[in-house]
Amino acid sequence: MSIPYQISTLLRWGLGLLLPGLFCLLVALFALLAEANTDWGARRLGSWLLQHNDQRLLAGATWQNISAQRRARTLLDSAAREPQIDAKKLPLHLLTHHYAQLQRTPHFARWRSHKRTTALSPQDLSPQQLRLLAQSMQAFAQVDDLLAPIELPVDGFQIQARIYPQTALEDGSLFPELHRRLLQSRAPEAWNFTRMDIDDRRAWQEKLRPLLSAQSERKALPEAPAIGETLTALVAAWSDSLQRDEIERLRRSWRQATDFELRLVRNLDEFAGYALLAGELPVRFIVPAVLGAKAIGSAQLGSQ
Fold first, then answer.
1. N or C terminus of the chain with fewer C-beta within 10 Å?
2. Are residues 144 and 158 in the same domain?
């Protein structure tokens, strides 16, 4: 075999190996450029993973390790959200009372506040006491926010709201109030209640008395509709005022009472609350669904 023949053979082998390699290199470069510009491969891979996501394994060492890491991150995030407090700026009620959530399930939650045997001193708080005070502050804020927009049953307040005007009607002090309110609405009926003699008072007492009776279904005066409407609005305003006073009393009791317990019960999408004060009947109220779900779902258990 001659030398030229051997060289030509080597060249043919070299070209035979080089050309496929160059072709593969060009294809790889083209694929890289196409992926960089279109993300076609990444989209196809993501689509395949989504299609087979329900077939992934939910057991095994790898899955348990992932689950443990997730739980650890959740606990660390919860601990990081614990409020930091300045001992010098603590409200007085946090030093004299302890607030905690005692129980929580998806359908029930229970909080309690009670007066401390000995009030805490801001200058002598240990790190452990500061941590517990932070939890106490969180529980206090949860119930305080929960009580602000509650709805109380109106029947009892409407009955109470009629007692004052009934008394005022009998002693005559209701007529100046009606006169003032009718003047504000520029109703000519206002002048019925100026310079009233005894006969006028008695006549209006007879007319207005049925409007203030809880047993009577009469709610208007056909001969003087503006007076009936004004009296009804007056009773409604007193009823609303009594409700606001009761809500404020509950919030004040949560802050200052010797022993106060609040229970929140979920029934489907409705949330009913019960305030239990020592020596009193339970007070039932309705909590807005958004606040109720937030209180049951996000509150942290406190020490008892």
1. N
2. no
